[in-house]
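pasting for ref
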Amino acid sequence: MKNNYTLLTALVLASCVTFAQNKAINTKNSQPQVQSALSSTPKSVDPDYAKNLNRISKALEDTVYFENFSSGTSISLPTGWSVVNNNSLNNFQWVWNNVYQDGQFSNPTDIIASPSVADGFMVLTADNFNTPIPGTGPVVMDTYFESPSITVVNPRASYWVAYHQAIRYCCSGANRLVIQASTDNFATFEEYDATNGIATNAAFDGINYINISTAVGDSGSFKIRFVSEGNTHYYWMIDDFAVIEGAENDLQLNSPYLEFNFDYVFNPFYNQIPYDLFAPLPISGFAYNNGSNNATGVELQADISHQSYPNGTPGLGLVYSTNSSPQAIPSNKVIDSAIYTVAPSVGSGNPRFIPTVLGNFSVDILLTSDSADQWTNVIGIHINNRTFATSDTVYARDDNGFAGGTGPGSFVSTNGIPGGQLPGDAFGTMYIVESSTGNGPTKAPTSITYAVSTDVSQVGVQITPTIWAYDEDSASIASAFGNVVASAFIPHTITAANIGNLLTLAFDNGIAVMNGLDSGQYVCGWVVVDHNGGNNFEVQEDASSGQFQDNVTCFVNLAHDPGWGWVDANPVIRLNFGLLTTGLNDGNKTSNAALELAPNPTNGEFTLTITSTEKVTYDLNIRNVLGQIIHTDNITVNGTITKQMDLTQFEKGVYFVSLENGKERLLKKVVVK
């Protein structure tokens, strides 16, 4: 599916079901409610806010209005400020305070960390209001507080608001935590997201910047509102509010991204890519004009350098440079004044980057225009640096800096039931294979590597490594999941030795093991076979590389809540590749030998028929679902032999019969009824 981003418009929206993390920070007692279905854009691409901390260091005279809320009291607000509560039957509204009143999902230490916190701040204690939850369920917030009229003697075309906030909200991305700006006492207004782009249940404490020029640019008088609507828990605190003058020339690059799989709307960021599967790489980003002047000659530029070879020896240095076609972006008084830009430009005929060597690479990304940016006073703005590596066999989305844990037990379903409790729970992360492009032929997936978390309670849990086919063009997340293309016949039981270490589980079943992966999207993860008394398997996360990951590329399926949903996590799940081989056999691959059994299902008695075109010796093993060998024998085959087997003394269930000799492995599943 092609990227369908367009100029001066919002991003592509992906309608999907999401789950709320029940290990969100600062939870207390029970877990927050689940998010409902929502539309989501890729991360950090909202044009209505900026995070450049240099903005707060502007000269004092550039601040046209400031309020630190030090003159408030428990019964009154600073002069000119007012509060409105649209929930007329309660007092759940914004108030002034100098302490934080916590609730069941928050703590006293959640108080805002602003410099003037001791003098007071504005706070909406939704968590406190809903503790305990009223008999009819939690009450949603519907309240705002409003500034006095802010008068500017010499109006400017560009204005920003800058304020310190502590914010965490629940329980849907559709909740409105926004600021509104108006020049006519809110007869008309424009609205801007105030969440700083955080997901539901996540938290942010710091300075937020919002460009309000589209609403009040060139105006000498305007008002601001902070509006909270629909959220039920946690908190929102505001302090040290300022209106500052904006710049005439100011560009900002959001979401600089290495589009490893450009032809897909949702595609992962990789830190390691198998050399043979490296697709031609463009670099992309969203360029925003935060200045009051029209921006011209806007280009995205990128330099790719080969830093080192896998053995650590110095690399080749600069190996590729590219840029997008010059474009113009209207002033920030035009809503959504941004361009989605790609280097090299689509249709330019310039080649995208394909590495010619193995090793470690860095990418320097810059944004330039015809005018000097007033925040940096240079024409070329160094924006960001990305790194990645080409490997022989490993696909990895992490950069080895991981900790914590995530899995089905880290999330609650849409009906509020915690995951990680039932067999059939599944978890996975996306990888895209583009075998028709790049440096070489398709390889076959051989195994998955998991960075197992340090939680010792998962010892005894059984999992099966699994790859699912995935199609983002489907109508929903659940319907996007196709057939299992790779798995293992025998589940793996987590041991004490696995805890806190890397665990690699091999595939021995599935069409991808035999034929490799066709071009397309896949989800690689695991299915829980046995929770061992309600315990959960989880892997560590990589937060540092997670900030670059696209949404809708990590998924969970809770057995008690049918259907897949996407989650905001970056689990350490690596996909390993190897050359196609005939070494493994499930009865359908080419081999010198063949294994058949009948009847199947059986009452426990069945006949093995083993055929070989040459004389060969095997270990004959029968394993239960725990992987324990319940029968072993040594046999030599030269032609065809039959062997009678009897499992009637064992429990009913699934067993695995294998012939192994170090060179090949023939495997069959038998069901004892």
